[in-house]
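Predict the assembly for these three chains.
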Amino acid sequence: MTGWRAFLHLLWRDVRIEARRPQFFAASASFGVLLVFVTGIALDAAEHLPAEWVSGVLWLDIFYAATVGVHRHDFKDQEWGGGEGVLLAPVDRSMIFYARWVSVSLFIAASGLVMAAAWFLLLNPPPPAQPGLFAFALGAGALGLGGVATFVAALTAHTRLRDVLTPLLLFPLAIPLFIGVVRLTAYALEPTLGHPRVWVADVLGYIAAMLVVPWLVYEWVMEG
Amino acid sequence: MNRWSWWLAGVAGALGFAFLYLALIWSPPEQQMGDLVRIMYFHVASAWTALCAFFVTFVAALGLLLRGGERWDVVSACSAEIGLVYTTITLVTGSLWARPIWNTWWTWDPRLTTTLILWFLYAGYLLLRATLTGFERRAKISAAYAIIAFIDVPIIHMSVTWWRSIHPSVVDDSGFHMPPSMAGTLMFGFLSFFLLYLLLLWLRARGAWQKLEILRLGQAVRGLRLREERGR
Amino acid sequence: MLALEGVSKAFDLRPVLEEIDFTLAPGCRYLLSAPNGSGKTTLLRIMAGLSRPTRGRVLWNGAPLDPRGRRHIGVVLQQPMVYGDLTGEENLRLFAGLYGVRDARQAARRWLERAGLEDAGRTLVRHYSKGMRQRLAVARALIHEPAVLLLDEPLDGLDLEGRRSVAGWLDETVSRGTAVFAVMHDTASEWRPDVRLTLRWGRLVVVA
């Protein structure tokens, strides 16, 4: 059994479950759109926000909305014990992490697209001068956030306060990613803001760290 | 406390008083900041000690995962608690320093920002520990978090530094060059703070370890009683 | 074969299992019954590789149990270990795939039929009755034809017919050389073990 095939099976599992009952997507997309709307009110319906501010608002919403949905699939794992069934399988347990990471990133990207649409409509940011970079920021942001959120969700899955603890652990750990994607988005909107390369490196480096480190400790996290 | 820790307490106390003398009286005022520079000794020394404490947490977490045993977990948790206290001192003294110098309680200086994130990271660590049930599970999960958190610290610092240097910065922290008397005072301060850290860690870890032993004995006694009852 | 070597386990520093040495023999039926809270399920979880012993090792053919060793173990615990939002067939296909069973789809159909669930194959497991879930759980554990089968109360929640058919499957797997290790408190059942075991003060003891 190659790890790659196990990965595909596990990915298929999450996508199938989410397609049948899109709880992650529904929860985080609706909450995210609501957040964009409330932010618009909080900023007194400002017509033109500076590019830095408006991109910060977008990512704050995406990060916060992701923490709302991230426990949905852990819940499915625990409900009938399916997650333990997967742990029994002759599969390297880091594969379980990677499959969940990719599926969570896909769902974050999907709900992030909905939030970005609401954000364009309601907060009226300038159209991206560099659409490719904007798309990269969204994609890489979803991937990095998916990784750290999956890891934190695994840590807090057995705590009494997991709904509170997840954002509390996630935000400090994700600061490098957060700064990176906010700066990249701002740059995509307003190219005079400069220095995108540093932030591309920062975001990619963060994703690389997420590739390596959970692989080292995930096995221990999953065992009772 | 045993004799060893009394000795350590004595030395730490003596060093502490000597440090107070050096920092507050002996060392010269700085040209621009005047006497305010004296806060810096406490600020920087506690920041360094906090980093050392978190490094110990990291190493103990690695030890737990690689070698196993409750000792590692006890050291890891106690060191994080003390490190959090030192981080709090760093933040408070930083704020006190910033107010007269930059006319604000808080500035987005990269080091100060990183320190605050550090505070949140390890406050999260202690919260995570407090909400996990099951001794063995708590030890493993919090060790995994401690490892990730510590590895994240340099990445956080780098990204925050880039972020602030690309912005127009209020503060230029290229630093001032210290005369030997100031550098010496600072090193002395660090030494006495670090010694105090060791003393606290020793006392705290010993207390926690004894608590564990009591728990273990209690469990053993319960087991024996059960055995006797059922044996009859 | 699956073996335990000096396995001890503690929860909250309370020793549950102490120094257990045990080796399973192929084609042998083991029945473990002991009072609640004596560590039966803990022992089963350690043998399955779901839980790490505090001391000691779990061995597969003399080497520490690793993912490749887990390929030869089938497990039924109290929970059915399936996904409620997948159909019965999808669940079996997923696990057949994870165990590297050739032609997972075919195997899933075959086992649904054997479990008497062919009509429920396209129903979400969420809507299954307890007995149906239990039969699905046993099918999930057998789909990769394991050499060791570990069971925690496999006859629980089944009616008489269901108990007989599951007991029949177990005997059939034993005849193929599979070692079956079952935890049950109900000993007067449809299933006759070769070796009866119990846990006494955290140690595994042969009764008969």
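Chain B has a mean pLDDT of 86. Residues 226 and 232 of chain B are 10 Å apart (CA to CA).
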